[in-house]
Every structure is written in C-alpha cells, then in structure tokens.
Amino acid sequence: MSSLAAPVSLGAPRRAWLTDLPVLLVAVVWGASYLAAKGITTTHTVIAVLVLRFAVVLPVLVVAGWRKLRALTAAQWRGAAALGLILSGIFLLETYGVVHTSATNAGLIISLTMIFTPLAEAAVTKVSPPRAFLAAAALSVAGVVLLTQGGGFTTPSLGDLLMLLAALARTVHVLAMSRIKAVRSADSLSLTTVQLGSAVAVFAVIAAFPGTGASPWATALDFGPREWAGLVFLSVFCTLFAFFVQMWAVRRSSPSRVSLLLGTEPLWAAAAGIALAGDRPGVLGLAGAVLVLAGTTWGRRTADEDAR
User: Fold this and answer.
1) What pLDDT shows up at residue 14?
2) Which residues form the EamA domain (predicted)?
3) pLDDT (tens digit, 9 = 90+) per residue, 234-260?
4) Are 215 and 37 in contact (CB under 8 A)?
C-alpha cells in the first residue's frame, strides 16, 4: 500500500497503538455527537449551530498558536484553506443529513467511508489494497448492518443521500490531508486553525443570506444550559480535538488505516444510545458490535503488515 501519509515506523505494535488510540477516541466522541447534535439542532438552526460550533473554539486556537500561524507559508495557507472548504461541506452534509434521516440509516451510510477510502486511495496511487484489508472493511460494514438493525430501515430519503455524499466527502478530506505536501510538512495546530476558520467563514456567509434559518445570535440567545453543554461538547471534543488528532494521525499512518479506525464510530454511537438514551440493540446488535471490533482489529493488523 502507498506510504503517501509519511508514516513513522509502525512495525512496533506499541508505536502503532500510540497512533491508533487517539484516533479511536475520536471515533468515540464522534459516535456520541449524534445524540448531542440531535439535542440542540433543528431544521431551522443547522447553519446557526455550525457557526457557533466552530466560532467557540476558533479564538482559542488563534491565540494559542499565533506565532506559528504567522509562520505559515502561502502554500500552507492555501492547502489548509482548501481542507477547510472540504470540511465545511462535510459538516453541512452530515448535519442536514442527520436532521432529515434516521440515526440508523445515518450510522450505516456514513460508515461506507471505510470502503470508499481504500478504494479511492487505490485509484489514486494505482496500487490495489490488500484483499485482507478489503475483507476486514467488509466485515466491519456487515457488523454495522447488524448493529443498526434494531431501529429498522426506512425508504431512502434526501437525508440518506446527504449522508452518502458526506461519506464521500470524508474520503476526499482524508486523502487530501495525505496528498497536499504543504499540509503534511506544516504545524498541525496552525493548519487546524486555518481549516476551521475557513469552514466557519463558509457557514457565516451562508447564514447571512435570508431564508437559511435562524441567525447564530438568535439561536445562542435561545440556548439553555443543556444546549450550551451540547454545543461545548461538539465544539471542543468533536471538532477541535477530533480534527487535530486526525491531521496528526494521517501523517503517521495511512489514510485507509485512519478511516478504518474512525469507522468504528457507529459502534460508539450505539453505545452512547444504550447508555444515555436507553436504546436496546438486541442479539443482532450485539453480534454486529463484535463484528465491527473484529473487522477493525483485523484491518489494523493488515495495515501494519503492509506498512512494514
């Protein structure tokens, strides 16, 4: 498999886990983000919530990394801004998608990133991924199918299509981070700041147009303690922490490996539903959870062997 992500030596299992564990933690908080987003977002507040979600953490990033931010080259600014545009598309698609479809369908469809990424990487590099890796990804997706059977399936909707497009956009984002040379060699904190700044600028421009829903200011004034707690969780953990770790990990591993680990997100979404919302997955759901864990573990070992 291609080493475009400039991985460090992943031959040692301990070094591999040092990279994998933060990525798995990202999958955990992203899984919990479904409940958080549904708790504070409606059809009319999608853009407003996105503006607030990014704006909460952006000033902190700018202050913390001002010196290194000023040191970025023009190429690094352009690369990070391009990633920010892709990122804004991901969040628009995902947030509108979750609002307009069931959590079951959303969790299943977004997990297709696990399949799209190695296939896209193979198409770009002209190097086919190992069959074992594809089999591991297929096993994980089969697990997601079982895991999400408890809620049943609905007729494909606009929301389903938006989640499918979001999965494709996630694939583009991961590959772009590994292929833009300026991004690969620059400071992660500064690049994260520019990326999130570009995204919030896109959301702010959209919010300025009439007919795009409630304004960020009006939405913020309507928020109570519970809504603010959900927004802080989405901002600090699901946005700042998650994308900083993703940018850090993709340069030390491969896009396919990072995507496979992030693909456990539906498993953690189900865990959050069980613990916080009282969901009951049943026997099929538990079997699916086992398959997701088995598939991602197998795929991680396959990626290790291929990177040696």
Assistant:
1) 56
2) 21-148, 158-296
3) 999 988 888 788 878 877 777 777 877
4) no
Q: Token pair of 85, please?
A: 């545009």
- As given in the structure block, the two tokens for residue 116 are 């799209």
Choose among 164, 180, 197: nearest CA to 54: 197
Other beta carbons within 10 angstroms of residue 44's beta carbon come to: 12
Render 214-279 in DSSP notation, one character per residue: S-HHHHHHH--HHHHHHHHIIIIIIIIIHHHHHHHHHTTS-HHHHHHHHTTHHHHHHHHHHHHS--
- CA–CA separation, 16 and 21 (whole Å): 9
Cβ-based neighbours of 88, under 8 Å, separated by 6 or more: 198, 199, 202, 203
Which pLDDT score is estimated for 4? 31
CA distance 152 to 160: 14
Distance CA 233, CA 229 (A): 6
* Interatomic CA distance for residues 148 and 163, integer angstroms: 15
The helix-helix angle for 131-147 and 265-276 (nearest 10°) equals 20
Tokens standing for residue 158: 């606009």
